[in-house]
Amino acid sequence: xxxxxxxxxxxxxxxxxxxxxxxxxxxxxxxxxxxxxxxxxxxxxxxxxxxxxxxxxxxxxxxxxxxxxxxxxxxxxxxxxxxxxxxxxxxxxxxxxxxxxxxxxxxxxxxxxxxxxxxxxxxxxxxxxxxxxxxxxxxxxxxxxxxxxxxxxxxxxxxxxxxxxxxxxxxxxxxxxxxxxxxxxxxxxxxxxxxxxxxxxxxxxxxxxxxxxxxxxxxxxxxxxxxxxxxxxxxxxxxxxxxxxxxxxxxxxxxxxxxxxxxxxxxxxxxxxxxxxxxxxxxxxxxxxxxxxxxxxxxxxxxxxxxxxxxxxxxxxxxxxxxxxxxxxxxxxxxxxxxxxxxxxxxxxxxxxxxxxxxxxxxxxxxxxxxxxxxxxxxxxxxxxxxxxxxxxxxxxxxxxxxxxxxxxxxxxxxxxxxxxxxxxxxxxxxxxxxxxxxxxxxxxxxxxxxxxxxxxxxx
Length: 460
What we know:
Mean pLDDT is 89; it is low at 390-398 and 442-446. The two termini are 27 Å apart. This protein has helices spanning 9-14, 103-106, 138-141, 158-165, 202-208, 291-299, 321-326, 336-345, 363-380, 412-425, 453-456; strands at 18-23, 33-34, 37-38, 41-47, 53-57, 71-73, 76-78, 85-86, 92-94, 115-118, 121-125, 147-154, 213-219, 222-230, 240-249, 253-257, 262-272, 275-284, 302-303, 308-309, 403-408, 446-449. Strands 12, 13, 14, 15, 16, 17, 18, 21 and 22 form a 9-stranded antiparallel sheet that branches. Strand 3 and strand 4 form a beta hairpin. The radius of gyration is 23 Å and the shape is elongated. The chain is α+β, with helices and mostly antiparallel strands and 460 residues long.
């Protein structure tokens, strides 16, 4: 499950999907050239003078010089070693030291990949044949000003990074705060605002209700994960339930609520088998995103040149024992990305899953691994895996649509559908997308809730 290099079953499966390869802001300087490593491949991404993007192999086809340090000129990227010039499609345009009239150049081509830019993220397709359409997610179709993109580094395998995002229970522990923020201070912060339909802060709900009821259902895009917390403590009578609905989007994405009107879609992109970049797209339904605030918040803990975290293994994540005793569950500050980072890096770069003891709270992880192994096996047999939604799907879907809200106990499905419909119809850009709601709030049919009794020992 964890291997992504060329020639591995997992790598062959992963290459059938578009992969985030860089942020648009990485190409914003005077020399728009970056050198991403994706799925174990060393690449160069550049923007030519006319704005065309190229994604090519990092080593020159002549004698292997590093093209990430090449000259960006004459419509392409020129190798500094002997002046060979390569275009955005990888074709060799010039071999200036040769006297053969360009015959050698016509026979040379770098490995190159389709590339597209959308709302702050540059995507590459590293697989065979024609790439599939980009998935028709909200973050892809929203106007650019309603989105914000960022990324960060994790010193571990991609699967560990993904699995923390589809674990609905860990938020009650790993992200527990002993105090609640004022609602006005919550913008851009995960788990800090109030839940839809109430003035209860998410921090209080997560802190007081650590045993949610969990359901998982396979869908056309991956799986839907439902966590229900009946509110029956501290004077509450249990007539209402906190409903948190998140989604796992194949191959390595999640869609989760940040607030009642903003969602996060996050991809866990393998650099190689031992390291990962997460890419996040924040999408607002109701108003343009305050990008300056969002970016400043995230740069407090990340170095801008490589997007690596300031808190890391080398400094024990700046652990504070007094903070752990009085303010946070982890003692690692209030940035939940740091909490997640410590948890998944603390498992080692590739965790030995034969040592696990899974429980009922791990339903979504079990479901995902089953789907992952089935998809890899299907690709090995020459078939096609479960793919993302696209504009050719039978619905106009701009989902899947997450939710964090409070509704009547026993009626979470109706509450979810009504709440999502109301939020979207008030949106200036999503209000007309009626078909997104036609087959349920996620825009797709479900296959029913997953039976995991053989793994967890329970029958629910």
